[in-house]
Every structure is written in structure tokens, then in C-alpha cells.
Amino acid sequence: MTNYLVPSLFFICIFASFIYKKVITKKYLSLLMEYKLYKKEEEYMELLSSLPIKLYFSTKTIMVLKIKYYLDTNQYDQIKEITEQVRKSNLKMRDLVSIYLSVYAYYLNFGHRYDALEIYHFLISHLDEESNQELYGELNELKTIYIDHDRNYISVLEKKIEKTKLLPEVVILYFRLAKLYKFLGDVDQSKLFLQRAKNFSKSQEQIKQLDRLIGT
Question: Within 13 A of 131's CA, how many CA atoms are on the CB side?
Fold first, then answer.
């Protein structure tokens, strides 16, 4: 009987551990969501540094949650600081790239051109162009629009729009064309293409954001 009892106890322990982990994970995720919703930053960061979180979440996940919080609340100094911590960490390059892409988009969106260029050069120097052609193209397109303000790229975007069949991509391309015109000082053309982006959009949240931009 003892021979049967030992395996049974083993599986009971495994099952109990699984249930405990599931319950605890759900509890702490709920707390994180609550703290973020009500902008309780101190409590949010303390929870991310707590032992239960460190036991059940990887270093990468904790880093991502911290950066996402700072990105969502537009905290430039904290983003700079944690981005440097990420660079010095032992994260795999694949994970590092995914985090840096979010930071790159943030810097571009809020006009931090020098910081965006720094991220751009880091990513370009650590990516293999041949196996990451789509990502390479995306990085360069965003740089051309948001940093270089290259007027010659208008025709490139227009040709892309003509060839694109997918509505979400059309919306993005019209939005980028609008941004480029705005950077070039042509506000009327910018609003015209924002309106076209809105006409193709199926997302109510996206339409509201575009309405706000058209009205400014």
C-alpha cells in the first residue's frame, strides 16, 4: 500500500501547487490591474517588486509590465531609466527587441527624436536584415516620417495605399501620410488624410482618436 500512497501524495502535492499558483496569480493580476486603473503607482511598483510576483512572473514579464505602465502614463524619465536597465539585463535579444520597439514608438509619438534615433541605431545594429526584412522596413519607414520628415516619401506612401487591400493597413498608411504632411507644415493636407483614415477605420476607439486629431 505504501508504494501506491507515495505517488498519490506526490500528485496531490503537484495538483495543490498548481491550484495555489493559479489562484495567487489571478489575485495579484487583479491587484495590478486595479492599481494601474486608479494610477496607484507606488502600490503598483511595490507589488511588482514583491516576492509572490517574482516567484510567478519572469524577469522579462516584470520589466514589460513596468515599461508598459510608464509608457501608458507618459513618464519620460522613468522610461529612460528602465530602458537602460533593460539594455544591461540578461534578456534574450528577441525579448529586448520587442521591448525596444514599444519604446521606439513612444519616443517617435512624443517627439523625442534623439532618443528614438538611439533606439533605432541599437535595433538596426542587432537585427539581421535578411531574416527581419519586414521589421527593418517598418523601422526605416517610421524614421523617414517621424525623424527625417522626408518630403520625397509622400509618393512612396501614396503608392503603398494604392496597392494595399487590407483596411487596417490603409488606415495606418493614411495616418502616416497625414503625420508627414503635418511635419512638413501642411496642416490642411494633414487633416484631409486624417479624415480619409477615419473613413476607412472600423474601430470606434480609433475613430474617436482621429476625430480629436482632426479637430485640433
Answer: 4
